[in-house]
Amino acid sequence: MHTDERPDEPAWNSIPIAAIEHYAYCARQAALIHLERYFADNAATARGQWAHDTVDQTGPSTTPDGTRRWNSLPVWDSSLGIHGICDVVEFHPEGPFPIEHKSGSYRPGGPADLQVAAQVLCLRSMFSAPVPHGVVFAGTHRRRYEVPVDATLETHLRETIANLRALLQSTTLPPARNDARCPPCSLHEGCMPEAPTHPPVSLFTPEFLDDQDD
Ligand code: SF4
Q1: CATH number, domain at 70?
Q2: What DSSP string runs through 105-157?
Q3: How close is the Cα of 13 to the center of ligand 1, in Å?
Q4: Whose Cα sits closest to atom 2 in ligand 1?
Q5: Among residues 66, 76, 107, 122, which is most buried (max CB within 10 A)?
């Protein structure tokens, strides 16, 4: 399947950080959402939206222990060409760090790590501060997981952004994975990962056409 011609567009000069997470999960998912503008909710995305809504009151606040926080803080890094909104940024004497709220569980090394790493690099750029790690708050276990953003993760992030940018400037929808990622994916119904990439040749044989005439 191909998308319409999409020449270089100014919009892709800056990539939404959410697209990085989508791409890390499945390149086809990123293309469906950010190229085809196709999106569908399921129970997991509804829970995720609820989790974000709980922190989406924009603006500053102070926790009872005196920690300054900012909910829904817009962040960007123009040299990397990425932008997004951090659920929460906490400001500590040693520097700020982002907290990404997830309704489910946390898997180390998964797409959330790249999302948080992108937020960390934005904060480093915006505040000229050392931001050694970000945090994922996993609703399932109601606990924080620290995500160190070292050189290895930063390199992985930069490669992912480059690959994603190429995808967003292309006209080709990546093939479906059709693996364990598909059943829980909210785009499953529209994506149809079980469908053959190419129809069987027999569909186009004269015998098939003859059958249709009966
Ligand atoms: S259903 Fe599978 S192949 Fe399709 S977008 Fe979701 S994860 Fe990717």
Answers
A1: 3.90.320.10
A2: ---TTSHHHHHHHHHHHHHHHHHT----EEEEEETTTTEEEEEE--HHHHHHH
A3: 25
A4: 182
A5: 122
Ligand 1: residue whose CA is nearest its atom 5: 29
Q: Domain tally for the chain?
A: 1
Show the tokens assigned to 50: 């609820």
Ligand 1 atom closest to the Cα of residue 186 is 6
Helix (H/G/I), strand (E/B), else coil: 205: coil
Look at residue 154 and tell me if it is in a domain.
yes
> Residue whose CA is closest, atom 7 of ligand 1?
182
Euclidean distance between CA atoms 120 and 75, whole angstroms? 9
Q: Is 130 inside a domain boundary? A: yes
What does DSSP say about strands 133-138 and 95-102: parallel, antiparallel, or unpaired? Answer: parallel
Q: Averaged over 150-154, what is the pLDDT?
A: 98
Show the ligand 1 pocket: residues with CB < 6 angstroms. Answer: 26, 28-29, 32, 176-177, 181-182, 185, 187-188, 191, 193
- Please tell me whether the overall predicted TM-score, pTM, comes out greater than 0.90 for this model: no
Between the CA of 20 and the centroid of ligand 1 the distance, in Å, is: 15
Q: Atom of ligand 1 at shortest distance to CA of 181?
A: 7
Per the prediction, the chain carries an average pLDDT of 86
Average the pLDDT over 103-129 and give the result: 96
Residue 1 resides in a domain: no
- Show the domain range for 83: 10-191
Categorize the per-residue pLDDT at 57 as very low, low, confident or very high, splitting at 50, 70 and 90.
confident
Closest approach atom of ligand 1 to CA 185: 6
